[in-house]
Amino acid sequence: MKYGNLILFLLLNFAALAIGSYLIGDPATNEWYQSVNKAPWTPPGWFFGVAWTTIMICFSIFLWKVTREHDWKEIFNPFFIVYIVQWLLNVAWNPLFFKDELVWPALVLIMFLAILVGWILYWGVKNFGKWGYLVLPYFAWLLVAFSLNAYIFFAN
């Protein structure tokens, strides 16, 4: 099946978003989040959905390319271990930040997530050239998210 792994990664990556959302509910109705001082560069709520949809489509295409070019056993270590850890961190950030209101631990978590995705970006560009740049939207968004999280930590 030519696109089987693409479908698999789309399902896995969007599942991470769905699980994270399920664990917190709607941030727009979250009383704590609505009351905190947010960064002036905080995008409007609708933009988050557009950003994450774009990110996960690009990331899934990149992962599909990786699995088309390499044997799974050849790339399982360390690449897919990093993938699994970043997946878990991505899911964990939402409840940590929105539900538990643990802004400092969420900031540390997103920093580690950005480091892992930065490594995936580096590895992808090094090994797959232009295909690796499909990870760039994810990495860039994590830097924005880190800045938003940091602003909330320092301004509240």
Protein described:
- With 156 residues, the protein is mainly alpha-helical.
- The chain has a single domain, classed as Ferritin, CATH 1.20.1260.
- The chain contains 6 helices and no strands.
- The protein has helices at residues 4-24, 31-35, 45-69, 72-99, 103-128, 136-155.
- 23% of the residues are buried.
- The mean pLDDT is 91.
Radius of gyration (CA) equals 16 Å
- CATH superfamily (homologous) name: TspO/MBR protein
Secondary-structure element string: HHHHHH
Mean pLDDT: 91
What is the class in the CATH system? Mainly Alpha
How big a fraction of the residues is strand? under 5%
Separation, N- and C-terminal Cα atoms = 51 Å
Q: Which spans of ≥5 residues are poorly predicted at pLDDT below 50?
A: none
Number of strands: 0
How many domains comprise the coordinates? Answer: 1
Shape, principal axes of CA atoms? elongated
- Named CATH architecture: Up-down Bundle
What summary fits the major beta sheet?
none
**SS content category:** mainly alpha
CATH topology: Ferritin
Helix content: over 70%
The DSSP helix count reads 6
